Amino acid sequence: MKKMIKKLLILIYVFLIIINNVSFAMENNNMDLNSESMNEILGAVVSLSRFVLVLIGIIIFLVLFYKYIKAINIYIKFKKNNKDRVDNDSIENKLKKLDKAIRRAKFNLGIGVVISAFLFFVAFVVHLTITFAEKPIIYIYPQEEQTVTVKLEKEDLITCSYPKYEEKWNVLAKPNGDLTDLKTGRKLYALYWEGGEFKNPDYKEGFVIKGEDSAKFLEEKLNILGLNEKEAEEFIIYWLPKMEKNKYNYIKFVSQEEIDDQMPLEIDPKPDTLIRVYMQFKVLPFKIKVKEQELDKVERSGFTVVEWGGSEL
Question: Do 163 and 183 touch, CB atoms closer than 8 A?
């Protein structure tokens, strides 16, 4: 048993090292980690990793459970075949050895359950790669109709945008949020982009909620973070189908400082209020305990720009 556990831990360690080195090599060879094809490759790697870890866990449990049942059957069969010789010392000693084998198999099964649970935890709770921003959209509310220029300073990380992002967006913005793209003349209500890369949370803080409580949770938290009812509705409509059906969701809102670091946003003229909301969430098969994240109430005033986005871990 000890040799099997040692070999298993070495196998898992080597497996995780390989995954991490692949990601590191991609980054250091300037591979486009944000392209759709690369996202698909990384997603496949993560899925394969989870499958392998779960498969190993299941195999460990089944093998040890089989050995436990086999030990019990051998004991029962031997005792049945020698029921008339129970006073024989050799038979009694054999029964003691078989009983000891059962207890050892039971102990090994307990260890196997713990190992399997750990592998399931790694597969479904610990994420192995970076995540990418989904559907950040930008609303612009000037105090009077005016031309506004918006720049995303890490253009190379953008995988999709509308209107097509080329160095910057120039729009005519109205106080009610209506926009006109000065390049195409199209009427818009927001600017859209996808891409960027965000570090995964450490799961030390955040929120763990039931999937069925997702809408109520988002209404409350988005209000604190400064989104109005229209913006919050669009946020919820986009994310609710991905969250409501789950047993539990782990949720964390990325700080504006980290958002600014990952995708700096330059707006001219500079807004009086800039709100950037980015949610990371992960589907959980069971509830975990985390420290509740503290969110500061955001107040809007003057020329306001709002951006929201997120990603599923």
Answer: yes
